[in-house]
Amino acid sequence: MNRTRTYSMQTRAAAAELTRDRILDAALDLFLERHYDDVSMREIAATAGVAPQTVVNHFATKEAVFVAAAFERFQGQTEELRYRAAAGDIAAAVDALAADYERTAGANARLLAVEDRVPAVHEVLAEGRAVHRRWVERTFPNALAGLRGTARKRRLAQLASVTDASTWLLLRRDHGLAEAEAADAVRELIESIHRKPKGSSQ
Known about the structure:
The chain is 77% helix and 0% strand. By secondary structure, it is mostly helical. It folds into 2 domains: 1-62, Tetracycline Repressor, domain 2 (Orthogonal Bundle); 83-202. Helix 1 (2-33) crosses helix 4 (62-82), helix 6 crosses helix 8 (149-162) and helix 8 packs antiparallel against helix 10 (179-194). The longest helix is centred in the N-terminal third of the chain and has 32 residues, at 2-33. 23% of the residues are buried.
């Protein structure tokens, strides 16, 4: 009897986890495609193929779904893609950024528009900035080698800025560069920073 009950509980737990996974996958797709304000709990449920109450049972609010999708899905996918590039390999790093930003840069811009009024979005974007800076530090060690204090802080800010999603959108949308041209532009910017003398602000 106890074995049957244990098996039943394990089966229900596994089913609940699969349902949660479907909800997070659906939510991530919607938040990447749509403006944050245009995504509803009902739409997440419909995309996941579950009842709206099921989404509420797993995640009480849209904000909670958003944070979970960002941290449990998006962040891992992004880091897995980016960390394929070995430290110091500028070309591979830019290829990883291009693949990442072609999918996500538009969503990032839409989230920036609501960051100041949606705490959940602010939380996710703040962590995203920290993750990006850690990736920059790990990926471009030669540009940071030997720098200390203000000089290192400035160089890190330069690298983080030229590899930011906003820079990618400027190149692609505002200046009309094709994906390969935008990648070349970012690579050239990174290489120019690598060529700067230590501590140079020029």
